[in-house]
Fold this sequence. Notes:
Radius of gyration of chain A: 21 Å
Shape of chain A: globular
Largest sheet of chain A: 2 strands, antiparallel
Oligomer: heterodimer
Amino acid sequence: MEILWVLAIPLLGGVLLALFGCRRFAPELNSLMSFATLIAATALTIRVINDGPITALNEQFFVDSFNVFLVALTAFVGFTTSLFSRPYMRIEQDRGKLTVNMLRLYHSMYQLFSFTMLLALLTNNLGILWVAMEAATLTTVLLVSLYRTPASLEAAWKYFILCGVGIAQALFGTILLYFAAEKVLGAGGNALLWTHLNGVKGQLEPTVLSLAFVFLLVGYGTKVGLAPLHNWLPDAHAEGPTPISAVLSGLLLNVALYAVVRSKVLVDGALGNHFAGNLMMGFGLLSVVMAAFFLSRQKDVKRLFAYSSIEHMGLTTFAFGMGGPVATFAAMLHMTVHSLTKSAIFFAVGHATQKSGTQFIADIRGLIQTNPTIGWGLMIGSLAILGMPPFGVFASEFMILTTAMHSYPWTTPFLLVALGVAFAAIFGKVQTMVFGETTGQRLPHPPALLPVFAHLALVLLLGVYIPPYLANWYRQAVALLG
Amino acid sequence: MTDFSGQIINLCAALLLLVAFGMLSQRRVLSLINLFAAQGLILTISTAVVAYSSHQSHLYYSAALTLVLKVILLPWILHRLIRKLNVKWDIETLFNIPATMLIGIVLVIFAFNLAAPISQMAGTITKSTLGIAMASVLLSFLMMITRSKAVPQVIGFLAMENGLFFAATSATYGMPMVVELGIALDVLVGMFILGIFFFQIRETFDSLDLKHMEKLKED
């Protein structure tokens, strides 16, 4: 029942905002719907923690401790981002960058985007998972081009075509998976249900499954932003409105990686070797290294943090690829802290670019002087994302690195160098933006800083103390993923 | 009887491959849309024949869905779009069609090799056509790479979806109905969004040529 609420509220929100999105109260309605989604997600989480995995509606929906933590995270970041988008979008509108109709489109699509992500997470059917992932692209493509500038149109086109082609590969992978499943489970809708597949994964044809996984990894990997399929990501993040950059980076990438991990569980069961893990480690390591070296060349602050997202998603993919209890635990923790930290950074960056009127790093100066909270938010957020103790990213990166040293020692130099290069690049650039003489102007609406510091406080908390129920929750998920 | 329908399915597969090559070399936007509609029609016929010979009644629904969506609705939307965008008589300059065709042949051989082990495992009467399905996916991919205008690129994208659909029918007698409906919905919504998008692009760039869009590059 809770599952239906989690899905129905954002869907209803999408319809309501399509009708009333041009009214003055639309941003508040958007936050309200996201808040209602968060409440439903919390209820679902509590139920799953107490009762264990549940299925609903003829097993079409399935929740276990792995996806419920992502559902909770998605609903939470969805809500805080809607709080941030309230003043942000009002300022954009006051400056004449957006018309009322664009805002209506934005608010409606924001809710539908939440809906597609939650559907992708909650569905038990791998075919519907594909449909929801594609729908997530479709809902955001017009948001990336919201400003209608030449650069934003180009970014949106690239996003649409690259993700569309990528996800077509994932469809082929799904077809192959169904082909293998049909032999064991028989034709019909049940052969694509993950719970059924998981039960018979040992009997699935290994050659077909390994081929299927290659296509699924390439397909969903395009959406995760794994190198060399990441080309759409920096453009889409830089050219869209900042709240969209925050949810793309903090949530969509996670959901795509979730799809990969779900498939990996099946393939591991069928193959009985480390084929899927090796592929994921390879793509992950390549993304970490590639992104780290691109970071220092960035001139646009949103592109800078988009590349940082590629780096962190690569690291998470690498950790999931290594497998084993510690690495999987670390990967899930990293997913959580990255998504909280990165969205907090995008909130701070969003207001910083509005104050300076530009996204060029060279033209943003002295944030601490005009608005200490934005400046400190950006500074602390950057330190957190760079893996400084005592923040949560440090804890997860530390666990990933120690596991890598233990199991795959040859990867450690690559990871350490990449993390070092990333540190130098991001820290150097953030410092010039935060300190120095200011160029900023006052914002017509008070910036939303509560989400920034709420996220950073949570990341700090996760760094020093993981509450026992959360650790337990992660451990259950680790046991499921094997 | 099954022999005869098997022949028809193979004929459809061969025609599908021919159309894929036709799209690769076609320079007129209008003819491309007609080729796309023809591809949809071939898909409909082959799906219906598979449904008839294998007694899979749910395949009749997907054949009907294909007919409505890919033979009638999408080509109609595309025709309207190119008329409104005034690109109906557009001719694209393609460089080196023979080379593209040769690459296409290599792709077909590659697809057949890739599909061979899987088709041997398939129990469907259409298993020999899986290679062709993969080949048409790869050929549409090649088409998207070689085109620089927005409309042909999108037709390539839709043709790729056709190839995937054909792969699903030939390997497994089609995906579960709920998934197929979902995919059809995505394709339709995607088409509407692209329609809006074409106008935005033309408004901003005064042209649908994607060569204007090369600003976002790493330097």
